[in-house]
Every structure is written in structure tokens, then in C-alpha cells.
Design a protein that fits this description.
Largest sheet: 5 strands, antiparallel
Length: about 500
């Protein structure tokens, strides 16, 4: 049986048999056979028979004649490279294909190298079918065009890592990497330093090459397929993936730097509820070791550690605490979780859970101890101020610039028999003046009072004494206070008679 190389050789010889022959005259060597004969001067093909040219046309079109000649014979004559390199020294050589399908004769004379390719003795003569051979040749042209025009690098490596075959995209890359070369030698140079022959099958290796002059680095994803004793490697461009990964890394680094400067502790749990991201502030607020946080603990383990470190409120019992963990997680996934934690050491944390579209949950830990302390101190000062004004005998009411009551003391509520515990803002200047008009029916006075308290007149302080049958002598004073507010004060100098006391409940705050 003829081997694959022998079959191709017979087909090419058949193509030459059915094509018109032409005489080839060697310039310095006389033709001695009708076999495939090539004449090279250095690496330039100076002459060849029709069969030889047909044979060369089956090789990679992107290669010059000499490396194409070696590429076509390298699989059948593995040591052809080293043997032809010594042709000028030995003068003549003869090589036999490892499968016995062909024989190559070489001769050196006067700076010219002649090679004759003969069919092997073990190949039986065959009848040629011109139509079958033409179909084979057409299919070969199509396959070669597809492989050379494919936007994917493809090459074959032997056990020593030598490139024994490559497609057009690989050769184009070699020319880009070596723009100073006008031709390529055989075996072809290696484009990648990585050796793929012993690599794992279907494992993607990402490698890069540098393009000189333009200082460009090109990235490829390479995958290996076994091909007998050799390896077939395919490489696709990975520039966009590398750029996307680089952009993603830069974005994460930017976020990391931003989060590192935040005083708020950040803990992001992925959809599997494992810790995926945290910032340095979390280690300070949680008192947890960075090694533990870097081990990607689950949400339950994270909260367990918080409890052990006394960085969360101590639950009444373990079951209730475990139930609160589930509520914490479900509430945060719905975007509604916010909780104030009062810690045993006196600190106060605000814990906020925020959901993410991919199912992750982010928890924010804020130390609001100073804020809570300020709030408590402010509230204490308000209570103390209220207690001070409640201790005064003068009935006092303060109105804002909008005309709403913002402050009154106990003496005022007792004088005017009103309950203002609910909301002072429900009492307007008009409501208060309506109660005060019980002192006297002087409409001009109360009109002036209304304008003063509503900010419609000048802010100079003034007072008036009113003689009332129900209240006796009442000293009224009206003065401005800070923030655009105004104050109304009432002091009784003579107690009213019980029979003349006014009816209670003239205005009530809701």
C-alpha cells in the first residue's frame, strides 16, 4: 500500500503527466532524468521541471521557494535540514523517506544545488484517473486557502519543539516580529518561547509576543491537539480579553484604594454568601483578623466571630440570635435592612445591608458613637433648657419666623389651660392671640402683637400692662430672640378671683 506521501506524489506526477511537457535547459547542470528536479542557487529557485513546480505549488504559498521545498519534504525526510546544510561540503547525498515512499538525490556543483525527487521502489504502479486527480487538486487548493486565510494561528511542533508546519497567519506573525527579514529559513523560527508539544490537551495557555519598533505586545490563547508524534497548536487573539481584564483589575484597584480610605467598614458577600470583598476599616470595626477575613468566611461564620469579639449586641438566647441572622440576610437582600447596634464597650454601630443585582449583599458598618453621644448631649441640653424655663414664674412662648410656636413653659400651659405636649408647631400666632384676647378687647393691641410675632413689623422689644377683670394686672412683654424667633411673656401681678377664671381648653394641640 502506498503511504500518504506516496499517494500525493503519484497524484502530482499524474497531474504533470496530463499536462503538456516543456523542455527545461539547466544553465550549468544537464538534465539526467524526467523525475522532479529542482535547481537552487543559494535559496533561490533558478529552474525546475513541470512536475517539480507542481509539487512546490502544494506547499504554503506564503513561504519562499526554499523553505517551502524543505517544508514539503520535512515530514518524510526528518533530517533533511542538517543533510542539505552539508551538501556543499560532501558534494552529493541521497536520502530515503522514512516510510520508503520516495528517494531524494542532491548534488552540488559550481554554486548550484540540484535535487531530484524519485518515487520509492515499494510504490506499485497505478492507473491514473485524470478526473479524480483534478478533484483532489481542487480540494487541496481549497483546503490550503482556508487554512492560510484563517484568522487563527496554526502550526505543528515535533518532539524537540521545532515548527514543522505553519499556516499563513503564523508566518505573517513571524514577519511582524522580524521586519528586517525578507525571507524565512526552515525550520521556521519559533514565535513563542513556550513549548506546546508536551502540554496538556485542551488546556488554554495565554502567551504573548513583542512586536519590535512599535513596542506592541500581542496576546494569544493557545490550545494543543495531538497529531501522531507531533502536536498541532491553534492560537486565537486574546488582546481584547487581556485589555478587558486589565481594565477590570484597574477598576478593582481604584475601588480598593477608595474603600481603603473610607472610615466605613465594607463587607461584600457573593451569592453563595461568602465574603468576597472587604476594606481595612472593617478589620478595625469588627476586631477580626485579616487572615480570617481573607479566608472568605460565610455570613454565618462572620457573624459568629463578631459575637465572639463582642462586636454585636449580645442576644438573649442563641436560637433568637440565629433567627436574627436569617432575618438580617433576608432583609438585606430586599434592600430594607438597617439596624443600630449598641455594643457592650459603649460603642454604637449602624449596620446597613444593600443588595446587588447578581445576588450579592453588601454590609456597611459605621461607628456612630460620636454622633450618638452628640445626640444624647444635645437632647440632655434640651431637657435641661426646658427644665429651666419650666421653673420660671413668667409664662413664656417662643414663635418661629413662620408664626408657629416652638417653645413654651409649664407656666404658660397652666395660664392658658392648654396641653402642648404633642406638637408645638400645631399652635400658630393667630391661635395664641385668640386666647390672649381674653385679657382685653383692644383689637389694635392684638393686631400689633400678631404682626410683631409674625415678623411683619420691626423687631424692637416692647411691653404693655393690661388690667383684666379675669386675670388682674398682667405684664406682657414681646421681644426678639436669636434665629429670627420672637418671645411673648406674661406675668401676673394680681391673682384673679376664682369666679372670674376663664374656661379651660380654649386651644389644644393635637
Amino acid at each position: 500500500m502506498a503511504t500518504s506521501f506516496g499517494t500525493a506524489l503519484l497524484a502530482l506526477m499524474a497531474i504533470g503527466h496530463f499536462q503538456p511537457r516543456r523542455r527545461v535547459t539547466w544553465d550549468r547542470l544537464a538534465r539526467e532524468s524526467e523525475e522532479m528536479t529542482f535547481l537552487f542557487e543559494d535559496e533561490e529557485l533558478v529552474d525546475a521541471t513541470d512536475e517539480a513546480r507542481s509539487f512546490l505549488s502544494t506547499g504554503p504559498e506564503t513561504l519562499p521557494h526554499w523553505p517551502r521545498f524543505l517544508a514539503l519534504l520535512a515530514s518524510s525526510f526528518p533530517d533533511i535540514g542538517s543533510r542539505v546544510a552539508r551538501l556543499a561540503e560532501v558534494g552529493a547525498m541521497e536520502l530515503h523517506a522514512r516510510d520508503g515512499s520516495a528517494r531524494l538525490e542532491g548534488e552540488w556543483k559550481e554554486g548550484l544545488a540540484r535535487f531530484s525527487l524519485h518515487k520509492g521502489d515499494d510504490i506499485e504502479p497505478a492507473e491514473y484517473d485524470s478526473f479524480s486527480v483534478a478533484a483532489m487538486a481542487e480540494e487541496l487548493d481549497v483546503l490550503r486557502a482556508v487554512v492560510d486565510d484563517a484568522p487563527v494561528l496554526a502550526w505543528r511542533e515535533d518532539e524537540e519543539g521545532n515548527v514543522t508546519w505553519a499556516n499563513g497567519a503564523y508566518i505573517d506573525l513571524l514577519y511582524r516580529m522580524h521586519p528586517d527579514r525578507t525571507t524565512l529559513a526552515w525550520p521556521l523560527p519559533r514565535a513563542f518561547a513556550h513549548t506546546f508539544h508536551d502540554g496538556e490537551v485542551d488546556v488554554v495557555h495565554r502567551v504573548s509576543v513583542s512586536i519590535p519598533f512599535i513596542e506592541q505586545v500581542v496576546w494569544y490563547d493557545c490550545i494543543t491537539r495531538p497529531m501522531g508524534a507531533e502536536a498541532l497548536v491553534f492560537a486565537t487573539s486574546a488582546d481584547r480579553l487581556v485589555q478587558a481584564e486589565r481594565s477590570r483589575l484597574e477598576f478593582l484597584q481604584t475601588l480598593t484604594k477608595t474603600f481603603a480610605d473610607l472610615p466605613t467598614g465594607l463587607a461584600v458577600f457573593d451569592r453563595g454568601r461568602q465574603l468576597a470583598l472587604f476594606n481595612p476599616a472593617l478589620t478595625d470595626l469588627s476586631a477580626l483578623e485579616p487572615q480570617f477575613l481573607s479566608s472568605r468566611p460565610t455570613l454565618v461564620a462572620f457573624l459568629d466571630r463578631l459575637r465572639e469579639a463582642q462586636r454585636m449586641p449580645e442576644p438573649k438566647d442563641y436560637k433568637t440570635w440565629r433567627a436574627s441572622i436569617a432575618q438580617l440576610e433576608s432583609a438585606a437582600s430586599e434592600g430594607i435592612h438597617q439596624e443600630i447596634w449598641s455594643l457592650p464597650n459603649g460603642q454604637t454601630y449602624r449596620v446597613t445591608g444593600q443588595p446587588h443585582p447578581d445576588g450579592a449583599v453588601a454590609f456597611l458598618f459605621e461607628d456612630i458613637s460620636a454622633e450618638m453621644s452628640l445626640t444624647r448631649r444635645f437632647r440632655s441640653e434640651l431637657e435641661m433648657g426646658q427644665a429651666v424655663v419650666d421653673s420660671l414664674d413668667e409664662a413664656i412662648a417662643v414663635f418661629s419666623h413662620t408664626g408657629s410656636m416652638v417653645l413654651c413653659n409649664r407656666a404658660y400651659q397652666e395660664l392658658w389651660s392648654c396641653d402642648l405636649v404633642g406638637s408645638l408647631s400645631d399652635v400658630s400666632v393667630q391661635d395664641a392671640v385668640r386666647d390672649w384676647s381674653a385679657l382685653t378687647e383692644n383689637n389694635a393691641l392684638w393686631t400689633r402683637v400678631s404682626k410683631f410675632l409674625s415678623g411683619q413689623s420691626d423687631r424692637r422689644a416692647w411691653h404693655v400692662d393690661i388690667e383684666s377683670a379675669a386675670y388682674g394686672t398682667v405684664k406682657c412683654r414681646f421681644s426678639p430672640v436669636a434665629g429670627g424667633n420672637t418671645l411673648a411673656g406674661f406675668t401676673l401681678h394680681a391673682a384673679p378671683t376664682p369666679a372670674a377664671a376663664p374656661r379651660k381648653g380654649q386651644h389644644q394641640a393635637v
